[in-house]
Amino acid sequence: MADNTSHDEQLKRIMNQLADSMLELSHEEVLAETRGSGTDPQQEAERTRAVLRQASKALEAVNKRLWSLGHTVNLKSWKHWERNYYNSCRDCGLSVNFTVGGETWGDALGGPCRRSERYTARETKRLVGDPESRPM
Amino acid sequence: MEHSSSELLSPASELLRAHKLLLKDSSPAETTIKEVTKVLAKVILDLNSSPPRQPLRAVVDNTPSGSASGDISIVDSVGNENTGGNDCSAVPEAVAAWQVSPLTPPVSVPTPSPRTINDVSRSALVIANDKSVLKITKELLKHEGYSVHSAPDGAEGLRLYGRCAPFDLVLIDYYVPETDGVEIDYCAPQKDGIKLALAISKINPSQRMILAALDYQHPDQVPRPTELMHIPVLINTRQLRELFEKFQYWATREEIDQAIAALSPAEWLKLEKSAAWRVWGQGRSASDKGKDLLQDALLSTFIGAQGNGSGRRWNKRVDFVMHLTGAMRGISSHWKDKSNEREVLECEAVRCDAEGQEFSPLDNLGPGDTRDERLRVAAAEGFQPAAERRLIAKEEIEKLFRMFMNDKEATLVLQGFSEGKKKNEIVQKYELTAKQYDAAIKRIRVKLSGPANGGGGEEHGR
What we know:
The complex is a heterodimer. By secondary structure, chain A is an alpha+beta fold. In chain A, 47% of the residues lie in helices and 11% in strands. Chain A has helices spanning 7-23, 27-36, 41-68, 121-129, and strands spanning 79-81, 84-88, 95-99, 104-105. In chain A, strands 1-2-3-4 form a 4-stranded antiparallel beta sheet, with helices on one face. In chain A, strand 1 (79-81) and strand 2 (84-88) form a beta hairpin. By secondary structure, chain B is of the alpha/beta class. Chain B has 4 domains: 5-245, no CATH class; 253-341, no CATH class; 346-380, no CATH class; 389-459. In chain B, the strands form 3 sheets. Chain B has a 6-stranded mixed beta sheet with strand order 5-4-6-9-8-7. A 3-stranded antiparallel beta sheet of chain B has the order 1-2-3, with no helix packed on it. Residues 1-120, 178-237, 341-350 and 454-462 of chain B have low confidence and may be disordered. The chains are: A alpha+beta, B alpha/beta.
């Protein structure tokens, strides 16, 4: 190859063109090509749909949980790492993780945000005054 | 469409000549243009054969806030005022007729009191085939005090221009059908699908025509080149954003859910396969499936729907599949950048000395050292974070070309792709027909997706 572009750039270009070529196909052509590669298009599409539906539900659930605890996350800061997404509370810095499979973990889910303005002074006082009552 | 000054000397005859030329060609697609040309020619001949609308008086506006296009404005008998506005090269005579008229002595007939341009509304012509864009732009301009004429296509726009020019402002959506006759002096596609062009009349540089594409992803992304500072009115992005909100251009979470539910199996497959190819192109490990990218795009869209400036907002004017594809393109590119620029991890830099003892060239660096410093030290020690990925990519490329070594057309297409060429460039360079190109790319897709290759895209099993 005369082109001096790096191999990874060349690979990216080839695959991006193949990706874009999918969009130019008619629905019938897409279904036919999928069948041609030995896959049932209906099943494959349903599988993709189910995975994405799960992702949507997982995000909703974790946001709801964080909100109920008074944590505020920067929605732009959700990072993808391996199989999970992670973020941290903008106010207290505690972390939160979730997978599209619905698993959630992280310190932020262990209790209310200490620095949240949504929590009344009484609640804060109660939590500070009685460490045993802190929800885990 | 270039117009020399000599052509502009007799535009009416030029239009008639063009009309005659068009009549020779009986192509049905040009019927409308023929009709418009005919009407325009008639209008211009009428303008030439009769004096300008009477009475007309020149009003010199000395106020600092006068129109940016000039100090002379024209007031007609009913108080409608026109400043030296925009030009349209297809109807220069019409413009010339109006521009010359202020220089003629005022006719002494009873007229309303002279009014400066600050007392009357300014005029604008908006040409956009998208009804929503038309509505929004009209609303915006009316709010700015403009009286607005609108047209759904270039032909109707030219007709209105011929009848009502000059305007203080002419806005044309970039993708307007039948814009033949509109000369574009400058057209600069911007990043992220934003297109904004500024056409400046060669006859009178103070007269400007703005061509603004409103199909951008986010109003904040609208570029504001310095040239636009000189036009009579600026598109106020804040106002435009508010109007977009008002007319619900941005999809809500519920609408996104509805769009997802409405996706057909073929569309799901398109998205999934498109994502899988893109991920493969990033040289990601086999565990990084295309669905991850699609998930990221979707989550980003959900986040964008909350309207707080984060994520990727879905502009409902854009097809949902295209939106997700665009989001995937951006996200995968971001992955690549991150991969290229990421911090050198201690674990990656660890080496063994001659005695088998582990050491890291980064050990001697302090916490205050920058990422660049860490990279420099690591590189000096022979450590290259992206070396492995480059090696994998090299092997992938070689494997790809080996797979199609007996398929000349597929090899040429792959070669073209690797050089960043588009379909028309590849077809032209390698003298392929469009049919050969399409067949070759299909063979590439099927072969790379096939079970013989470990399954394609999603399951390509590299």
